[in-house]
Amino acid sequence: VQLQAFGGGLVQAGGSLRLSCVASGRTFSSYVMGWFRQAPGKEREFVAAISWSGHSSYYEYSVKGRFTISRDNAKNSVYLQMSSLKPEDTAVYYCAAREVAGRTYNYWGQGTQVTVSS
Q1: What gap in Å lies between CA 55 and CA 29, rounded to an integer?
Q2: How far is the C-alpha of 47 from the C-alpha of 61, rounded, in Å?
Q3: How many CA atoms lie within 13 A of 73 on its CB side?
Q4: pLDDT tens digit string along 22-53?
Q5: Could you tell me the maximum CA-CA distance found in the chain, to the nearest angstrom?
Q6: Dihedral (CA of 26, 59, 65, 111) sign
Q7: The three-state (H, E, C) secondary structure of 36-64, written as one string
C-alpha cells in the first residue's frame, strides 16, 4: 500500500489543523492506520492509531483530548484532527499502516510538516 500525507502547515498555538492521508494499492480496510511524528533531534514517536473498522482508537498521552483520529474506508483515507495545538506539537507527521494481524507498521507516507508558533 502506498500512503500520501498532506495538510500540514504553520499555525499559531491554540489553533487547529487537519491532516489527511490517502492510501492506494491493496485493500485499505485490511490495515490498522496510525499517525507518528518526529520532532527535530528526537526519535519518531507514536501519536494515534485506529482499527481497521474505525471503532477503536488509541492516543499518545500528550495528545489525548486534543487530537482525533478517524478514517473513511470508502475514500481510502485516514485523518488526524489536531486542536489546541502547542509548540511542542511541532514535528513532521507521518501516516503509517500495518496489517491487522501484524505487529509493526510496514508502510509509511512521506510526512507532512506541522509547525506551531508560540
Answers
A1: 12
A2: 8
A3: 14
A4: 999 768 888 999 999 999 999 999 999 999 99
A5: 41
A6: negative
A7: EEECCCCCCEEEEEECCCCCCEEECHHHE
